[in-house]
Amino acid sequence: MYNYKVEEIRPIIKDIIRANVVPDILNWLEEERALNTSFVLLPRKTGKAIININKEQTEQLNTIIPGFSVGGWSIDRLGRAYLLLNLDAANKSEYFRKIESLFLAAEMGELVALYSTLPLLAYPEIWVKRCSEGIRSNIGSVLEAIMYQNPYPAQNLDQSAWNQLVLKAFFTDKEVGKIIGIDSRANKELAYILSDYAHERWAAKREVNPNLWRLVGKFIDDKLFEDIKRLFDDGNLVDRKAGALAISASNYQPAAALLNKYPELSTAIENKKLSWDTLTGK
Question: I want to staple 243 with a disulfide (CB 3.0 to 4.6 A). Which of 87, 146, 199, 231 is the partner?
């Protein structure tokens, strides 16, 4: 039903809510009423302030669901997650029907809450199609809810949908370092897709996000090496740093030979002064 210990996470979420609202609001959240009604009315009760959460609570959530975080969430977003956590999941079809009806009627704030709560929902396999559809959204906050600190996509999407998510992240200029599983789910098909995307950008005289090469390094071959060489030959310092980081993940000997010509970059990588996290400051 759940792929984590839901009985452990409910009290943590409840404690976070308790610390961010007056007692009457928590009581209101736990009153029985139609889910749709509570879901819509909730922001009027809680407001939309960003929650305060302590380090211990953050670590507890991440221990139960690795990669999951509610840091930076608004209180209404967390309250909606709490409503879903307390929804009876015994009847799979009824559980799906109730939550799917929320998706179908949702406005932007509700969509953000629903997509960011995917890791908490029971029967994770039944939300794959919904997650894949969300990736096609053009609403930035909805995409970030799916992509940022959300382990659901990496755990449940097939390779095609995952690759579409990553491409969409680059296309919409998202911070790919916040995508859970960005490195572990790298694959050669994606490397080639991103290479083609880079060529389209270059042809249009547009910049290429240097973090793109993070997902290419492990798969460098004759074709992809031509892209890496271009970073060194025609790129700026950040491009060369990205190329060096990509090569550091590769076993392709011509690439290693190229990096040997830039000992200062090799040393920076070895000393951990240069990494994908420090490349652009994001």
Answer: 231
Task: Give the tens place of pLDDT for each residue, 243-261.
Answer: 999 999 999 999 999 999 9
List Cα–Cα distances, 197 to 26, 73, 235, 243, 250, in angstroms.
48, 32, 16, 16, 21
First to last CA, the chain: 37
Q: Which of 48, 20, 24 is nearest to 110 (CA)?
A: 48
**What stretch of H or E contains 250?**
none
What's the Cα-to-Cα distance from 216 to each of 131, 270, 275, rounded to whole Å? 25, 19, 15
> What pTM, to 2 d.p., does this model score?
0.94
Cα gap 200→188, rounded to integer Å? 19
Residue 204: C-alpha distances to residues 84, 168, 198, 200 (Å): 45, 18, 10, 6
Phi/psi of residue 39, nearest 5 degrees = -60, -40
Cα 17 to Cα 46: distance, rounded to the nearest angstrom: 10
List the Cα angle 79/85/87 in 5-degree steps.
110
| 175 pLDDT higher than 80 | yes
Measured between alpha carbons, how far is 15 from 29 in angstroms, rounded to an integer?
A: 13
* Per-residue model confidence as pLDDT tens digits over 37-79: 999 999 999 999 999 999 999 999 999 999 999 999 999 999 9
Q: Is the torsion defined by CA of 10, 13, 19, 22 positive or negative?
A: negative
